[in-house]
Design brief:
Helix content is about 0%, strand content about 65%. By secondary structure, the protein is mainly beta. The mean pLDDT is about 95.
Length: about 300
Amino acid sequence: NYPLNLQQNRLAIFGNYKLKFLKERLNLSLNGRQEMIEGKAIPFIASVGMDGWFLKMFCLKLCVAQHYRIPTFNDLYYQGYDAIGNTNLKPENGWTEEVSIINEYSYKKFNWYLSATAFNRNIDNWIVWQPQASNANIWSTQNKLKVWSRGLEYKVAFDFTLSKLNFSLTGNYNFIFSTNQQTNDATDPSLGKQLIYVPAQNAQGAASIKYQGFSLCYTQSYVGYRFTTSDNTQWLNPYSLSNAAVSQEFHFKKINYQVYAQLNNILDVQYQIIAFTPMPGRCWQFGIKLEIINH
């Protein structure tokens, strides 16, 4: 959906240097990237990371990185009946910081993984898609002068194997604030408010059983409140979806194929991702996946 036959020439050089200490229980990583776009150099991007293991099964990770992102072709040139790109966009730039603690443990045929991450991002000219002020039915891209995104992320995974039977549980939870920190007008009601359609809370979980190519999986997801106006006076209600899938793998000579059936939105929840755009209720999905092995 571009009006012209567009192209862009990009050349990038990456560099990475690692230092290892204490028999690799402490590692330091230095990274750099220089990119040329249409023969012009964009700002040099650097990052520093460190990870260290302690008490045998705990890992602490730290990372500080520059952020620079040029608008994509979709951001700039997309032309659709309900969305339009913006050729006046500026590149995003800023800094990100993260700290994580990870716990990994294995005992015989049982494994677990736990992690918690806190992050902070300060980005200038954050690129967002949102409804136009003059016509809410048309979405377009624009820059937010300054956005502060911060939050917590949690992940968990367990799996257990008994003979040829495998059980697994996974889950993650995100608590994120992304607020507009600067506007051209000090009285702008969006100042200090959460960005539209960015939920402060979301979570996913899955449980699966696998046995000799047979798989049964159940997933549950939750999406919290999402504001639909920049002054945060209107919002969409939270929703939670349940899905289940069953599949069987088969092998015939050099062909692997999987037959699957999936039931989406088991509880027939009425929900919207975008305002005034209802999503499907309970529905089935069937399919076959083929893989041809050439060797």
